[in-house]
# Entry
Amino acid sequence: GAVVSQHPSWVICKSGTSVKIECRSLDFQATTMFWYRQFPKQSLMLMATSNEGSKATYEQGVEKDKFLINHASLTLSTLTVTSAHPEDSSFYICSARDRTAGRTNTGELFFGEGSRLTVL
Amino acid sequence: RKEVEQDPGPFNVPEGATVAFNCTYSNSASQSFFWYRQDCRKEPKLLMSVYSSGNEDGRFTAQLNRASQYISLLIRDSKLSDSATYLCVVTPNTGGFKTIFGAGTRLFVKA
# Structure
């Protein structure tokens, strides 16, 4: 099956620093990737939709200046948590859908392994 | 009302039991439906798609009732390895690829 790789898997940083998380589709091209956040014992919450070559679409309540998303190629999207604070500590997961699945929303979503961020 | 709602958990069942999960969605124009499984501290993985005619994959049966906007997942002969969180996933017909996740239902299968 298709593979989505996320890096790093774990990151611990000091408050005020910025952290970049990468999401790569390894064997398919993804025009669109998604970024989610999941707090303990809660469901995945969609943060933003990353569009290759254009601006990301953010969900209500998600600060675009706080969570910078760049989707420079069909296989790579990055999420940068700027000036991270302890409340940003969470499990961040990306997903992607093979662009050849078409624009019918019926394709399987492939998830990265997730990145666990701990801000001290 | 949440766009996708699932049975509150957790479900605690013995091995061999049959367990059913329910999910309702609010957007009647929703197009695609899936069940994903998520193990603790891991990413979600597709368990099965849900088709209008209902579909079965081994011990797992998924059903869709568009009139009632309701999806179900039935697990027969539960195994210890079935312990996980099961996520109901709906793709609304709003254009683009946005996908809505339910809060998930936690299943514990005990020996």
